[in-house]
Write a structure and sequence with these properties.
Strand order of the largest sheet: 2-1-3-4
Structural class: alpha+beta
Largest sheet: 4 strands, mixed
CATH architecture of the largest domain: 3-Layer(aba) Sandwich
Strand content: 5-15%
Shape: elongated
Order of helices and strands: HHHHHEHEHEEH
Number of domains: 2
Number of helices: 8
Number of strands: 4
Length: about 180
């Protein structure tokens, strides 16, 4: 019984990030199939660690948390991605963007909104934020657009309805 509990706990620790992505069916990771990849990767790592370490259950307890931490550190919705552009090209592109060309609908408690704002600010993009936790007018506009989740961006009149993805954002701005 103790071995079964240990195996279940090990698998749960490895699969937690994947399950978190999979539960958010509106996430880019879910739609692109990455969540399924996370689940399969977690299972593969668990069974590989079990096979390689065999009776060394204590070693598995060292490896499993290390792998889980690595999975948690993965950045969601392509936040780290930037396609073929390097940092200098991204900053040059950002210099030509006015705040009125990028409108982000957000909420105060939205973690993904904070990540998107951080990426935009870090790369020097000007943008206008419409916080629906503060402004009823923002809620009305968001509803009129048919928005279902945040962050919701309007980039030069084109809508990013599936949340923030840096590659998609850069593609919308590129000539």
């Amino acid at each position: 019984m103790t071995h079964r509990l240990a195996r279940t706990a090990s698998a749960a620790i490895l699969l937690l990030p994947a399950v978190c992505h999979a539960v958010d069916s509106g996430s880019t990771a879910y739609r692109s199939g990455k969540a399924a990849g996370y689940v399969l990767g977690g299972l593969l790592l668990f069974f590989l660690a079990r096979r390689l370490l065999g009776g060394l259950a204590w070693a598995r307890w060292l490896i499993v948390p290390a792998i889980a931490i690595a999975l948690f550190r993965m950045q969601p919705f392509g936040a780290a991605g930037s396609g073929d552009l390097d940092a200098d090209k991204i900053h040059a592109l950002a210099a030509g963007v006015r705040a009125d060309e990028v409108l982000m609908y957000s909420t105060t408690e939205c973690v993904y909104c904070a990540q998107a704002k951080g990426w935009l600010s870090q790369n020097g993009f000007a943008f206008t934020e419409c916080n629906m936790s503060v402004s009823p007018a923002c809620v009305q506009d968001f509803t009129r657009f048919g928005g279902t989740g945040t962050p919701y961006l309007v980039v030069r009149g084109r809508h990013m309805k599936d949340g923030f993805d840096s590659d998609q954002f850069l593609a919308l701005l590129s000539p």
